[in-house]
Design a protein that fits this description.
With 445 residues, the protein is of the alpha+beta class. It contains 9 helices and 10 strands. The strands form 4 sheets. It has a 4-stranded antiparallel β-sheet, with no helix packed on it. The radius of gyration is 42 Å and the shape is elongated.
């Protein structure tokens, strides 16, 4: 064994060991990808957190039904002495005692640190109507956020499916491109031998080399696209971008035909964006009723207590229970204008809900048409693949009988690779069309 051979043998040992110890990439099935996205996708997480925020808003609105306690404390020092002047007879004049007081009397408290405490415990009465409308508004907002969460889940599910199918398509196209690279290399080698024997023209060799360069470029572009799409998939699943994985093949698409009327009915009942539009109508109506209730005076059952500290001339403790009324009778037409604005907002919401229903009908019908087109395209590409396969078989038989050139066999192999790639692309396109239709009718899985 020569020295150079020994060096090459030793250099190959670490790479072989490294290849043996390197773990195989994870096989990521479509079902596994969807489960990971539902658990880890950041957009879904944010939508879930928004629902939790809405739950807290509902609880805060319900708490307004209970009595409220307002506490006001003022502590400090009077700037000037507190002085009360009582003229003679200010408390009356009686035959037995004469005027009380008999002469003008001045009572004065010196400037000193003091405090004033005022506490009011009020139970809403007429405000309960407005509070209940506020609770309903918050509950409707919570329901809208829940529908947004469903919408986000459906969008992420559709995005994961589309990206998974695109990855399968890219892998299939890459395999076909790599096969074409091998075919063009062999073709360039054969033509090169023919040129050296003057059995072919130099232009034929240049054509083969140009085809090889184009095939190598296409394969490189597909490798880069595959790497980028894997990073996008990891981002959708909430994982490290550099995590490698392999794909599991999907079964052949089912050719069951969905009834358009049934699909539209299902979409009208389950589409989250349409549910949001309908809830926004209820929300606008509740908001209008809440604004209308602003004209109702605020009447509460109130217990008020106040006390003065370190002020001898004032009563120490005063408590009062009764009804507390707050009302603004003069608003210069403000409430009427605001109510009119809320009424117009309600009409807008109704128009938007009707428009959303029409968009759902159009979307479902369009997606179903796209699915039919994808099915026909798949069948056409299947026939083209079978035709290319048969042509390769015929050319191979002729080559065995020396009735066809090797270049013809290689060209037929390249054509079959293109036909197989187009078939796989059409198959993935059919799955994408099915995924789009499922999202259009409101399916989340």
């Amino acid at each position: 064994m020569t020295r150079m051979a020994c060096v090459l043998l030793l250099a190959s040992i670490p790479s072989t060991a490294s290849a043996e110890t390197q773990p195989a990439p994870e096989v990521l099935t479509l079902e596994r990808a969807l489960a990971l996205a539902r658990d880890n996708n950041r957009s879904i997480r944010n939508a879930t957190l928004q629902v939790e925020r809405s739950e807290n808003s509902v609880g805060a609105a319900k708490a307004r039904r209970w009595p409220s306690l307002d506490l006001q404390v003022l502590g400090g020092k009077t700037i000037a002495p507190v002085r009360f002047t009582f003229p003679a007879g200010s408390f009356g004049s009686f035959p037995a005692t004469g005027p009380i007081p008999a002469e003008e009397t001045v009572l004065e408290a010196p400037s000193a640190p003091s405090a004033f405490v005022n506490a009011t415990l009020a139970q809403p009465l007429t405000q309960l109507h407005k509070i209940n409308l506020g609770v309903k508004l918050n509950e409707l907002s919570r329901e809208i956020d829940r529908e947004k969460l469903r919408d986000e889940r459906a969008a992420v599910t559709n995005e994961v499916k589309s990206l998974y199918y695109a990855l399968l398509q890219t892998e299939s196209a890459l395999a076909a491109a790599e096969e074409q690279v091998g075919t063009y290399r062999e073709l360039a080698r054969v033509i090169g031998e023919h040129v050296s024997r003057e059995a072919a023209l130099a232009a034929d060799r240049l054509d083969a080399q140009a085809g090889l360069a184009a095939a190598e470029y296409k394969a490189l572009a597909l490798r880069n696209a595959l790497a980028t799409r894997k990073e996008q998939m990891n981002d959708l699943l909430g994982r490290e971008l550099t995590l490698d994985f392999a794909l599991a093949p999907v079964p052949d698409a089912s050719l069951e035909e969905a009834d358009l009327a049934a699909a539209v009915t299902h979409a009208l009942e389950h589409r989250p964006d349409l549910a949001q539009a309908r809830l926004q109508v209820d929300q606008a109506d509740a908001d209008r009723r809440l604004k209308k209730a602003d004209s109702i005076p605020d009447l509460s059952l109130a217990l008020t207590y106040f006390t003065f500290a370190n002020v001898d001339l004032m009563p120490r403790n005063v408590a009062q229970v009764g009804l507390q009324l707050k009302w603004q009778p003069l608003d210069w037409g403000r409430r009427g204008k605001e109510l009119a604005e809320k009424t117009l907002q309600l009409e807008q919401a109704r128009n938007a809900a009707h428009e959303a229903e029409e968009r759902v009908r159009i979307d479902v019908a369009s997606r179903q048409r796209k699915l039919r087109e994808a099915r026909l395209l798949l069948e056409a590409n299947r026939l083209a693949r079978d035709s290319a396969r048969e042509k390769l078989r015929v050319v191979s038989e002729k080559h065995k009988q020396e009735a066809a050139l090797l270049r013809d066999v290689l060209s037929a192999q390249a054509a079959l690779g293109d036909a197989e790639a187009q078939y796989q692309q059409a198959l993935v396109g059919l799955w994408m069309a099915k995924a789009d239709l499922e999202k259009a009718i409101g399916e989340e899985q």
